[in-house]
Amino acid sequence: MKTKKAPKVVSKDSSEEEQRILKAFKDKDWAEIKGSNSWMIFKIMSEFVEGLEKLAKIGPCVTIFGSARVKANNPYYKMADEIAFQLVQHGYGVITGGGPGIMEAGNRGANRGKGKSVGLNIYLPHEQKGNAYIDADKLITFDYFFVRKVMFVKYSQGFIIMPGGLGTLDELTEALTLIQTKKIGRFPIVLVGKKFWGGMVAWWKKVLIEEEMISKEDLDFFNLVDSPEEAVKVIDDFYSKYLLAPNF
User: Fold this and answer.
1) CB atoms within 10 A of CB 129
2) What pLDDT, on a 0 to 100 scale, did the predictor assign at position 125?
3) CB within 8 Å of 62: residues ≥ 6 apart
4) Which of 60, 59, 86, 108 is nearest to 232 (CA)?
5) Would you kindly state where each structural domain of the chain is located, as residue ranges?
């Protein structure tokens, strides 16, 4: 006697993902292509226009990247809050991705220090919302990651990289790549947390350099620190070399 197999359970997320993949292979007629592409172009343009207009007047800022998953009792959250607080005391505004976790901590510290607190949020499936510490006139929410990334790079005078996951790694390596390829100036990049980032940096030295995937000089593009004071000092020291102050 044959036993019946239990029906395969397909979750809503996997079903949606499958449909997204199949849609990429579906033939479209000219009207569909023209309509879809035209709408996308206008949406992208509108996001660039809004970002450029709102951020053009914010002045010198430092972006703080890091995990959205950490809670307020996490040591990294507290450290990001303090770094942001100290940055605004030194005359810088703070930009974050606008969401929870490290991003919230960065905006919270800037708000606590009565400095500029900017949030570049992104629409995500889990409905990420702007945190409560962003200045009301400095919250922008994007559909497209690449537009948002342009805004981070264009309006930041430095990057503080707190512990984080794939998104944080993406933002870090993009900034390093743009500096390496001379697409942007050599702005300071600060990795905070020697224990967290140390293994990655050691792997870069052992594997990427030994395999000649990067140059030894590429490791000079960032600093590895362990405290808010060290992180802010890297930013200040960098600009003092050029006799620039935060009100430039």
Assistant:
1) 14
2) 75
3) 87, 92, 93, 94, 95, 156, 157, 158, 159, 160, 235
4) 86
5) 44-240
In this structure, the dihedral spanned by the alpha carbons of residues 140, 145, 151 and 153, taken in order and rounded to 10 degrees, is 150
Kindly state the tokens that stand for 49: 């226009």
Q: Say if residues 141 and 122 touch (Cβ distance below 8 Å).
A: yes
Q: How far apart are CA 98 and CA 133, in angstroms?
A: 9
Q: What are the CA-CA distances from residue 167 to residues 114, 172, 218 (Å)?
A: 28, 9, 21
pLDDT digits (tens, 9 = 90+) for 23-42: 666 666 655 655 567 888 99
**CATH topology for 44-240?**
Rossmann fold (3.40.50)
| Rounded distance between C-alpha atoms, residue 146 and residue 51, angstroms | 12
pTM: 0.84
